[in-house]
Amino acid sequence: MYGSIRGIWLGLSLKKKLGIYVCLVILVIGISAAFSFFLMDFALGNFNVILDDNSRCYDFQEAMEQESRAFENYIRDRSRENGEQYEMACQRSELSLRQLPYDYSLIGAERYGRTWSVCNAYEKYQSSRDEFVLRDQRDGEYIESLYQIYAMQGYLRTYARQLLQLTMVEGDASYQRQVPVYYRIPYLILLGSVALIGAITLLTRILSHGVVDPMEKLADATRKIAVNDFTGEDLAVDNQDEMGEMVRAFNKMKHATEGYIQTLMKNHEISELLHREEMEKIRMEKRLEAARLELLKSQINPHFLFNTLNIIACMAKLEDASTTERMITSMSNLFRYNLKTTEQIVPLGQEIRVVRDYMYIQQMRFGDRIQYDCRLLVDEMAVKIPAFTLQPLVENAIVHGIGKKEQGGTVYLRVRRKQNRVIVLVADTGVGMDEEKRRNLEEALEKSHTAKVGIGLGNIYQRIHAMYRDGEMRIYSRKGQGTVIWLEIPQEEIFQEETFQREISRKEIVREERAADDTKAEGGVL
After folding, report:
1. pTM here?
2. What pLDDT does residue 519 have?
């Protein structure tokens, strides 16, 4: 019998074996859950009934107390508010009365009789109460009727307390009768758990013998082959399923692989040589690309410095020495950033400080004609962007947009997050451009015609697309309304809340360094 069952089990496919195992485990879990549910329902069911009966009786007692107080307040002062409270109290009393346990088979003769007395007394009280509320206070029997109502309320409260006490006493007696059973429940659960654990262990051993044991043999043989040891004997298993087929196929592969080892070792040496040559080629291409990027970045520095020096020269003639000194301080910050920054990727905060210094110089030049609005929805020290990106865009917005507009305008800078990308918007309310000119500008950027678009904008466009595989730069504009430059700069990883918290301290340090630089500049140390 055992041999027949074992033969059938070994001949089943892995899918069927796993299905049988899962069904048996589900059956065991179902039995365990049903057993636990039955025990918990038995333990908690009666206890819940006791608590529910006590709660209903207590609710009726509390409702009668509240109704008595509301009735007294309403008789003294028949205001609208007191009337509403009285009506609500009456409704609560009637509802709690209807919810009292009133099943003879469940509560017994004594509680049933006491509940019947409460219901009958409340019905008489209700009719007398409603009749009294409608009676005129000038009636000669008004006071006498009022005290009759008070007396009936007192009887009902007494009946309610007696019913609650009786319910609690019977509930406690019922609970005491069931306490011995409750003490035996943990032992029953423990016994059932041991039985179920034993059943699952047996099922696991059966499945392990048919699946895990052959896998362990395969793993041992594979480890030997990994160190070029092919001396072991062929694996032998009794399985007739997919595992048995895998073991037999493994034996064939083992013999075939042994003949290929020497050839593979020679091919590996050749592949290593080719790989080293390919890596050297890649490193050379990276160095060439870095040199190209440095060349593109260097084109923008003289252009920016020349324009800024012209502005400071003009302001030196118009302003007092203090204004000129502050402008020179801003200019020194710009010089320091342009001359000392060698990284291709820098924190957003560095670029923002350069824009602030540049905007101060421009506002000194144009006065109230130029406004600057910057809003950052990201951590400026956690976000990384290409160096020398924001200032040229802001400069273009002033020179080609607002500077040509008589009443001036506003430069807007917005930075926000979009999944694992940073969106940078530089907008102005300048003269703008028509659709044809905008398309021509985008076409010139794509074809790298810097003569048509200017060094600054073309340089940024080329760097964005050279440094990022899916970086984007778009231009939106309407004639007479302004222009928007849209940049999408991918980040190496998605922003995390902990990254933001970690960078807060770094941002404070940078602000302190900037304040120290400003103090030195005001003292004449550049």
Report:
1. 0.39
2. 34
